[in-house]
Amino acid sequence: MDTGGILLIVLAMLAAVLLMAVGFVLFTRFGAGSHAFPCAYRADESSDWSRGQLTYDSGRLDHYGRGGPFRDPLHRWQRSGLELGIARAQDPADVPWLSGHVLAVPCAYADDRFELALGLEHYTALRSWLESVPPGWNANVA
Question: How many domains does the chain have?
Fold first, then answer.
């Protein structure tokens, strides 16, 4: 086998390993028990909306800003301490990256107050997740 053939085999193996690593990171970040959806975040009503993504699993809600899957969450809220206020309609022109009917939701976590903008279906899913009984909550009740 000549040098060109060996180099081609090595490059193909490196590409396969890289593809598997990216697939693994994406699966662990967005698959296997977590749910991800687009959102907008702002610290208060006078701030501008910033584009982001929310993911939630059994115990917490994570807010990610713009960027790839190798980022850390900007905010992390435990399910038990998060409170959603009364949602109100938001002008879709303010958050053009969200499609359909958009709702602005005031939120509270400990002493922190902020707002999230979500599509109607994502708001419904988040509200249901927050209000449902967490897994294992009544595990020892007979």
Answer: 2
| Residue 117, both tokens | 């903008």
At 24-83, the pLDDT tens digits run 666 655 554 557 889 999 998 899 999 999 988 878 999 988 765 457 889 999 998 999
Q: Is residue 141 part of a domain?
A: no
In this model, does residue 113 exceed pLDDT 60?
yes
CB atoms within 10 A of CB 96: 11
Element (H, E) at 129: helix 120-131
Nearest residue to 79 (alpha-carbon basis) of 138, 122, 139, 137: 137
CA–CA dist 131, 115 (Å, integer): 18
Let me know: does 117 contact 102? Beta carbons within 8 Å: yes
- 3-class secondary-structure state, position 65: coil
